[in-house]
Write a structure and sequence with these properties.
Structural class: mainly alpha
Shape: globular
Number of strands: 0
Number of helices: 7
Radius of gyration: 18 Å
Helix content: over 70%
Largest sheet: none
Distance between the termini: 27 Å
Order of helices and strands: HHHHHHH
Number of domains: 2
């Protein structure tokens, strides 16, 4: 597959590149934070990253700028950003570990299923509504934890439980979709 400059430098793809560049910026700001202003700045970087994620999809769809590169780049930027945020938050909030485990299991499942289906000529047509809700809840809670590092433990545990619920719900709701796709791909292979 040969990429054209127009595809590489489309506005949605540039926004994904910016998200990738913001990952080390966030890590340095969060790990080195000492004052509330430092934490607010780190949260601002994540908020800006989340907004670029929102806008790149909107621009790609509305301006007919959807590219194969963008379809690969966007989820990579999302997953790397999420990973950086949860691993940094584990330094301050040990309860985040259970979210990391859940996130890794969900993403491995979806990644492996996606690769197998891709080899069979099938792929998931974008994120489902429950995946988007799960991601939105994740970002809101992570922003809260980044910006307010002195938040009471009971509140931390509550918001982590809510995030875990939505991650688990998204995971469970994706399973039948992948099962159906596997059945359909098997049926098409059997007809040949």
């Amino acid at each position: 597959m040969k990429l054209k400059a127009k595809e590489i430098f489309s506005i949605p793809n540039i926004l994904s590149y910016i998200r990738l560049l913001l990952i080390p910026v966030f890590i340095v700001l969060y790990v080195g934070a000492d004052t509330p202003a430092d934490y607010y700045l780190a949260a601002g970087v994540v908020l800006f990253s989340g907004l670029t994620d929102l806008f790149d999809g909107q621009i790609a769809r509305r301006c007919n700028m959807i590219t194969e590169l963008g379809k690969a780049l966007d989820p990579i930027a999302d997953k790397l950003t999420q990973a950086a945020v949860v691993f940094c938050l584990m330094l301050r909030f040990p309860g985040v570990v259970f979210l990391v485990v859940l996130l890794v299991v969900k993403e491995l499942f979806m990644g492996v299923c996606g690769l197998v289906l891709l080899r069979r000529g099938r792929k998931l047509d974008g994120a489902m509504w429950f995946g988007k809700v799960s991601t939105a809840v994740f970002y809101v809670v992570m922003l809260l934890l980044i910006a307010l590092p002195e938040i009471p433990a009971a509140v931390v545990n509550g918001v982590l439980a809510v995030t875990g619920f939505f991650l688990a719900l998204s995971f469970v709701l994706y399973i039948p979709i992948y099962v159906r796709m596997f059945r359909e791909s098997r049926g098409k292979r059997n007809k040949k």
